[in-house]
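Tokenise the fold.
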Amino acid sequence: MNAGFTTIDYAIFVAYAILIVGLGLWLSRTKKGEEKDSKDYFLAGGTLSWWAIGASLIAANISAEHFIGMSGSGFRIGLGIAAYEWIGALSLIVVAKFLLPQMIDHKIFTMPQLAKERYGSGVSFFFSFFWLLVYVFVNLTSVAWLGALAMEQILNIPREYGVPGLLIFAGIYSIYGGLKAVAWTDVLQVVFLIGGGLITAWFALDAVAGDSGNAIDGFGMLLTKIREVPSDLHFNMIIDEKLNPAVFKDLPGMAVILGAMWLTNFGYWGFNQYIIQKGLAAKNLAEAKKGLIFAGYLKILIPIIVIVPGITAYVLFNHPDMQHTLSGLHGTIERADDAYPWLLRNFAPNGIRGLAFAALVAAVVSSLASMLNSTSTIFTLDIYKELINKNSTERQLVKVGRLTALAALFIAMFAAKPLLGGLDQAFQYIQEYTGFIYPGVVVVFGMGVLWRRATNRAALWTTILTIPLGIAMKVALPDLPFIIRMGYVCMILITFAVFLTLTDKNQVKAEPLDAKTTKKLIKAGWAFSVLAVVTLFAGIVWGTTLFDNNLIHLGFNSIFMLTFLLTFLAIIMFTNANSATKDAKSYTVDLKLFETDNNFFFGAMGIVVIIATLYAYFW
């Protein structure tokens, strides 16, 4: 079965494939007699403009884990899963203003390089090892597997062929051309994936409305039919454990706003190599900041593209009034991740089906290409160059980078089925298992960028404890939602990091800061202190069983992680301002790096207002 694909559908998809590969190879070319150096290959020569950065960030971010995995979570859970996207958009503002400027100012290529420059080779090696494992065995495998699942559902291509096919497709131009080929093809990919995704969502909603209305009417019907059932939370952003304990375990109420959802997003958008690499490749800091704000607006659209179709499939399958629409349709939804392919094969018209399928494949291929490039970047620059061949030439580095990407491609090809074959919602698998490292990533890299006193000893032990502590917490509290569990791990790691830093005698004399900088840091310290006290008080009242009116069933106990995070920031601000000592490898406190213009302010506020409005309506 080919889901009704016509000649025009095949033609559109083949044209897309030829266009992407051709563009990637054309961008990969070099002038006669010239060779790529490592900056050209791994950072696109530092030439990316804001719109290319924003588009490439979203193209790398949106993949099969969204079109298939998040749509599946939309089918099973509902709009609440959009918290990952909307909190992500807010996180991009913080990354653009406070984290990325330090990295660009210090000419960072990779996150392990930052760890080595700031702390030492031990921390760098651990994170190189962590990221390589995550990229190959979680990211590459899951994206390729979910993309192959879609191809099987839509075109009846067996997954055994789909996985290697997608990986090879992504590898053709990314392995040869490096980040430049990946980033500039992403600009075109994002047009396909957002345009095709919106079109699929439109026709799915149009099917709900039937002959009596259009897609907008269909969305209204969707909202009405779900809200007819009080216990149905498919259009709720905040999940109540009393109403649906199973969904609460994946999205524990207010923890998505108050808790470790922020860790996931800061770790992903701020310190994840295959994402932040796009910002590091900017032609200058101003372009990088604008690119991240642009990406924030694109993030707001993602739930419309992938989650609403999943909810649509849920209503069509489960609401008695809609059962008649299923007659004569191809296939069924046996597990949640089948939802998007089922919609695409049944509701997208001729021609549009080919475009929408191209959008789905564009999402998969662009993410795979970014992951392959970042895997090769970390291994080549942080392991090969630092530990194996310190005198390697630029030509050798590019060659090793290509071979590493090729090796990662083949490992992922064979590991995908054993790791993901039996899962119902692969998106939750990705979030939970990357969640084992994000608390440590945020603490170690966050204090490395922002805290003058953070030491190698504190960073190394925090890094070493991260995964064992996460595993121990999962074993000890298996029924605790993993988002809250991540928050508890982060609280312990912050405590260790602060204690080990403040008791470390291996410090050097700190140069005094100017009066203006000191005043601003102290003012920020008091602001964080006040917020920490407020959140602590709120947590005691509503996040514990000490009072009858507690909101633990809404996950309010997650606010204690926010208390720890705010206290951590207060300590950083006060010690940066007043401490007579610092770590020998610390970064200079230069508040000018954090300055932004009015365009940045209004752009950021636009994101905040839109997301606040969405949360208010769908609370």
The two ends are 41 Å apart (CA to CA). The chain has a mean pLDDT of 80. The beta strands are 508-509, 581-582.
